[in-house]
Amino acid sequence: MKICVFLSAADLDDRYTRPAREFAELLGKGGHTLVWGGSESGLMKVVADGVQESGGRLVGVSVDFLAAKARTNADEMVIARDLAERKALLLEKADAVVIMVGGTGTLDEATEILELKKHGRHDKPVVLLNTAGFYDGLRQQFQRMEDEGFLPVPLADLVFFAKDGVGALAYLEEWSGLR
């Protein structure tokens, strides 16, 4: 399965890097392909290293103004003109999406992917990996949106919240028929 992961390129502490590395190793050992922003820094590097070292493939989609930070030994690397093209290519190249910890760029990617799914522009599973409760507040906000009628489809049809990488991958494998 080709799994797109949206996540931070920042250097983070062990409470985020350790679970990210564990999830990456599960992907690699499962023979999955990581589709990611292509960066060779921060948490993006941690995940790419873990997938590659565990036997998985890497498909990166960087963007013109970040091309100097792109990983040089990915199995495939595409350089998009801008962030909008990058997001479209990431989704196009993936069978599923996992949203990991990140900042405003990750939040932008997450909300666009969910908006596209809400409008039927894709039917790929989306998992929000809630490492260390990072997305508890967002989950609460999404629940409020559903409760107050802002979501035309049930929240459970848009996104699955996973506490850890094992749960995230189990959900995706069940969805794809691999389990």
Mean pLDDT: 95
Shape: globular
Number of helices: 7
**What structural class results from the helix and strand content?**
alpha/beta
- The radius of gyration over CA amounts to 15 Å
Strand order of the largest sheet: 4-3-2-1-5-6-7
- Sketch the topology as an H/E string, one letter per element: EHEHEEHEHEHHEH
Which segments are poorly predicted (pLDDT under 50) over 5 or more consecutive residues?
none
Strand content: 15-25%
Describe the structure.
With about 180 residues, the protein is α/β, with parallel strands linked by helices. The chain is built from 7 helices and 7 strands. It has helices at about 15-30, 40-55, 85-90, 105-120, 135-145, 155-160, 165-175; strands at about 1-5, 35, 55-65, 75-80, 95-100, 125-130, 160. A 7-stranded parallel β-sheet has the order 4-3-2-1-5-6-7, with helices on both faces. α2 (about 40-55) links the parallel β2 and β3 (about 55-65). It is globular, with a radius of gyration of 15 Å.
Task: Please provide a brief summary of the model.
With 179 residues, the protein is of the alpha/beta class. The chain has helices spanning 14-29, 42-53, 83-92, 104-118, 136-147, 155-158, 165-176, and strands spanning 2-6, 33-36, 57-63, 76-80, 96-99, 126-129, 160-162. The protein has a 7-stranded parallel β-sheet with strand order 4-3-2-1-5-6-7, with helices on both faces.
